[in-house]
Amino acid sequence: MTTAKTRILIIDDEAQIRRFIRIALETQGYEVVEAASGREGLAQHDRTKPQLVLLDLGLPDIDGKLVVEQLRGRSHVPVIILSVRADENEKVTALDAGANDYVAKPFGAAELSARIRAVLRAHTGRPASQPVLHCGDLTVDISRREVTAAGKPVKLSKKEFEILHLLTHNAGRVLTHGYILRTLWGPEHEHDTQYLRVYVGQLRAKLHDDPAKPRYIANEPGVGYRLLEQAA
Amino acid sequence: MPAATGASEARPLARVLFRHLPPFLVAVGMVVACTLLSLMLSTWLAPGSLDLLYLTGVLLVAMNQGLWPSLVCSVLSYLAYSYYFVPPVHSLHIDRSQDWLDLLAFMVAAMITGTLTATVRRQLTLIRRTAQQNHQLYDFTAGIASAITRGELAALVRQHVSATLHCEARLLFLTPQGTLDSGGETPNFDEASLAAARESLQTGSMAGRGGSSRADTAWTFLPLGSGGDTTAGVLGVRLLGTDDRLDRNHQRLLRAMRDQTLIALDRIDIAARMEQTQLLKETERLREALLSSVSHDLRTPLSSIIGAATTLRDLGGELHDGQRRELLDTVIDESSRLNRFVQNLLDMTRIGYGALKPRAAWVDLREIAGEALRTLSKAYPEHRVVIEGADDELPAVFTDAVLLERVLFNLLDNAAKYAPASEPITVGFRHDGEALTVTVSDAGPGIPADERERVFDMFHRVQRGDGTPAGTGMGLAICRGLMQALGGNIAAHSGPDGRGTSMILTLTLHPAPP
After folding, report:
1. A150 in contact with B at a CB cutoff of 8 Å?
2. ipTM exceeding the 0.90 mark
3. Which of these, A224, B40, B94, B165, could form a disulfide with A176 (CB 3.0-4.6 Å)?
4. Phi, then psi, of A79 in degrees rounded to 5
5. Where is average pLDDT lowest: A94-108, B79-93, B376-390, B492-506?
6. Percentages helix, strand, coil for chain A, rounded to the nearest 5?
7. Residues of A with CB below 8 A from B310's CB?
8. How many independent structural domains does chain A possess?
């Protein structure tokens, strides 16, 4: 990331939205490629090989979810969904189809930049075998299964530790309820959201995290959970 | 249940005799005729073969007059035969035991054949009657099959029952309020009849005249159902004669017609429910379309505005002048787009509530077109518009300038949205003394012939493979609503040379301005 400019592909049918995103991203040193439809977007992806894709779900030609699937068939490029749709299911479907995160329209320039940075870092950053994960004042030691929050050790059960490990590993990214449940409990428990709610509740209590003003685990209503990245 | 035969006890003897005597008279006449004929033939024939003549007479009576007259006939025949032809003649006394045996055999044969024939006759009558009733029932079922509403069913049932049973008939439905409704017809029932109808409704059995309860009324009622809450209403009949009652056959026929009415009623109610469901679905679809339109068409420009404004605020120092200018343009353009959308929503609501009151005045169409073009050039500066037929001959039009301008702008907006900027949009004026047309043509992808009417439906969008700019699906519906309010018309046609789309507005011309 320090060498060549990071190339970002915007797929959105609204010219005005592309315009402001292009200006905002170019000013921050990214290279921007634009596409006004799903087909054009896929073609641009093949041609320009971007490091990140911003994808609007309400495209005129192809359903956004299908675009995600098509992109996943071609590369591991991280995808951030831009959606005006209030429908949470739409976001969950797109995330489960392989998108990495989403930003709900309307969004500000700073919010988008932060989300882009988080996704790029998670994607190109730490290797999976890293023994100790840090996120702000939260430390997760995987081999020793030890967690410290604000310097104090926290005693976690096996499942609580696994949830925190998964969230920390994907710090800054939203993980859908279905994804967490599938990964830690198995596909047959994919819809047992209440399990997850109980465990996350306990986890928050042990981390002294206030659900109303979370420092570590943020709730994305109807979608999933996200470990907040703190200024380290 | 008192039947027809039981009822006859109350009638004067004379009437009973008048009704039942003729068959017996025929029987007596037959014996007299046989005797006369036998007397004439006895000169040539042996007396022993004359009994066959009497037997034939008994058979004829049995066939035509039934069992009892045939029995009377056989007894009389026996007496006459023994009196005139069995020795000693002119006396009922019989000498020879052989003659006794003959006579007895004759008597038994006459009775058996008479009984058999009469039975056959009765069965034949029954079959004829059943066939007739089946026929009537079939006619009835076919007659009420065309009913689509409860009201139509009531009218058809009334008509067919009264024609079949020669009576007055009414179909009464139980309303949700608990009253009996005869389908818009003022009911001509007295208190007792109404009470009988209610009785029938509650008990689920026949009530009124000839029924198990309240027999002192003019009407007879059969329930549509088995009584209680599930009963849909009653079928009432009143025979035209004051003393007439429904005999068993008519009752059976009436019940069968009631059953058919019930089946027809079920069919009608199910159809009505399905239609209701369909209507609810359509309302639901419109509501969802409106929600998604508002969500998309309000939020998209807002997203651009918020995005551009936050970029200006957060990154302002690093932007160069061109970029800053672009972002400000975005804010302004998207704000006017939002304004147009809100205007459309307001128009749509006013059209929907019928609250649109055009304020007509004499206007020059060229001015209206000019105004619409100015608004368009702000939104689509790259599109070129050509105006045709706007000469001094163009008559003034008595209409609402503001509403007409909105129609024209919506059409131009559509044309600019769907047609490539390289091809000009044409606005053509044409008049023929009675009507004036304004045609907006573009070289866009055009509208398939089978969708040219549906594009005016609220939230209808032409589905295309790709590249279709997002529309609200409201523009053309609003245009049609506005044109109707203005007393004009709007229609979609294929463009000139079969390419693109021509939207044609038709305005009525009024006598020249004062």
Report:
1. no
2. no
3. A224
4. -125, 130
5. B79-93
6. 40, 20, 35
7. 108-110
8. 2
